[in-house]
Design brief:
Blueprint: H1 4-18, H2 23-36, E1 40-41, E2 53-59, E3 62-68, E4 78-84, E5 89-100, E6 103-111, E7 124-133, E8 139-151, E9 179-182, H3 189-197, E10 205-214, E11 219-221, E12 227-230, H4 233-250, E13 259-265, H5 282-293, H6 300-306, E14 309-313, E15 316-317, E16 340-343, H7 353-366, E17 371-374, H8 385-393, E18 396-401, E19 403-405, E20 412-415, H9 418-430
Helix pairs in contact: 1-9, 2-4, 4-9, 7-9
Length: 433
Amino acid sequence: MTPVPHRSHADDLLSFIRASPSPYHAVASAAQRLEKAGFRELRGTDDWTGTTGGSFVVRGGALIAWYAPEGVPAHTPFRIIGTHTDSPNLRIKPAPDNGSAGWRQVAVEIYGGVPLNTWLDRDLGISGRLALRGSGGRTESRLVQIDEPLLRVPQLAIHLDRSVNDGLALDRQRHIAPVWSLGEPDEGALLRRVAAAAEADPDEVLGWDLMLHDIQPPGYLGAEREFLVSSRLDNLVSVHAGVTALVAASGAAGEPAFIPVLAAFDHEEVGSGSDTGAQSPLLEHVLSRSVTARGGSSEDWPRALAGAFCVSADMAHAVHPNYAERHDPGHRPLPNGGPTVKVNVNQRYATDSTGIAVFATACERAGAPWQPFVSNNAMPCGTSIGPLTAARLGVQTVDVGVPGLSMHSARELCGSDDPGYLAAILGAFVTAG
């Protein structure tokens, strides 16, 4: 059976995922845990002068958090855990109410690299945020989460398409619209349903960022419950591990050698090109302000960066037993063998030998195993926020991740030990002396 400490971490991870169906909910869940540990939220318009202790900044689906105890030198280097809060899914269009042949449907847009067949015939809810008209011309953002079987993307019966098992014959634009009722299209019907769930007046809704999520709860799989199966393992496994490591670091005794940082970006699955993505100046602005707030000079900021290091934590590929030829023959990570260190000499990952050494040392301190990962030369290699962070800040970076199967599926799989390993390793990384 899975060791008790890792089972406890896995149980907590599943609770975190259940509460985090959208990037905005993931940030809210992380912020709630940080506040419970004594962190406080700072706003961009606040005066940060003299700010010490645990702090975090929220911008939409992104969160930057750090811990700087009172008296720590302003030039103290950062130890950054980079993650992302978004997952590939189906997102609701601005004019969602349509239909066909007597069915009411919802218009959706495909977000990120979605294996569309995994979204067929699943019970789907709605989550995200509403932008509401507030007082004094201001707007208010409100989260909404409907964990009810509200929609479904029905697959065509095999009797009407005998070639369905020959490959996915699915038009990306026409046939992905989920059904949710009978009747002619009713403009405003979906908005009324979502606004009611958010306890808002539909007339006060000015805009939204809404998406569909599988309402099947996460859980365990396998003869010994050795696997986790859930939506959004990519990349809430890493976000949860990062929060866990940061909270643990905030309780460590003595003056730290590093300032531990959690950077949870949005929009990684579509290139990170937004004000909340890894290509944005968000992390740079927040960390530089934190140095200035602690009395740092113009020299302290580049000194803090020069000694900084980042672990970019994203999900990785375990070897697939049915498609082993798609993997590099010498690098075949398995679940529960520890996180992988992802290497690509073309810099799709930012790992080099120094990064491997830093991560391997953290693994030794945590008493946790790790595995190397390299893509098959004949297959295109994915990427992560690691190269973006390295290029943006000039910070040494290593790309790592928990290995799993069914990446980007509506329901993914990983080992039940590995999230606990990752959290322990990240905790050792940010507190290293």
